[in-house]
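Treating backbone geometry as a discrete language has practical consequences that deserve illustration. Part of our work consisted of pairing the sequence of a single chain with a tokenised description of its backbone. We regard such an encoding as a compact summary of how the chain folds. The amino acid sequence and the backbone structure tokens for this protein are reproduced below.
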Amino acid sequence: MAGPIAVTTTTFVVGMSVLGLLLYVAEGGIGTLGGWLLLDERAVTRGQIWRFVTHLIPIPGVFGALISMIFFYLIGTQFESQIGRRAYTSLIVALTIIPAVLGALVAAGTGEGVLEIGLGIMFFGLAAGFAAANVQARSFFGIPFWALIAFFFFVQFLTLLSDRSLVGLVMLFSTTGIGLIMTRSLGFTGVDWIPTVPLPSVVTGTGTTTTATPKRAKKSRKSKRSSSHLQAVPTATASEAEIDSLLDQVSERGIDSLTKQQKQTLERHSKEMRKRRDG
């Protein structure tokens, strides 16, 4: 904790963006210091690899940056509580580095040069993952959240297309794809059309693949220390929708279609059901 504010991955990322905003104002735009943080493919080829991470700090404009920070914080805090800090941090790292590397490679081939990115591009990956994990979520005026994100994605796509920014398009699609694929691979969505990839244990961790609401996820992690929490929130019911989805998948495509994490989820559910029956 830092005072009353919990230092989570989300607050850290937003905090870096706030520093970027202050730097932008102090330098009257992206100045000398901000220029050292931008994703410049020519600088990267000279060994300045920190730019693959720091490109989120400089901001291309005040208004857009503020909007991105607000929505990133609102969605990020919910998503981080829902899937756990380890999985969420892994997602943020992937959304930061992989699109930057791809963007730099494309920039090297096209000669687009310096890229002013900020937090906006990463937001699409985060929002896509959140929408996949919460298909029934609603936004303003009851509009499905996934539909709202799809609309913003289309607007951003048209903007980058009109600017003839191939680098921007590559980063937009890669960021969104990473958000969807990692959310599915971690076992937090049952949307069948999203592909999965094997993830290392350092990403998945232990017991981080169950689909649960933020509060239930926290109580489940504390159940080893508190029997009252275990009774209040049974593990089996916390992932009921996911279990149904996994059983349907096994019925349609066989047990081998499940990822390692999904098989572990079914195994935990089976053990819980046996305990209830025998008890």
Remarks:
- The CA atoms of residues 156 and 172 lie 8 Å apart.
- Strands lie at 39-40, 114-115.
- The longest helix spans residues 85-110.
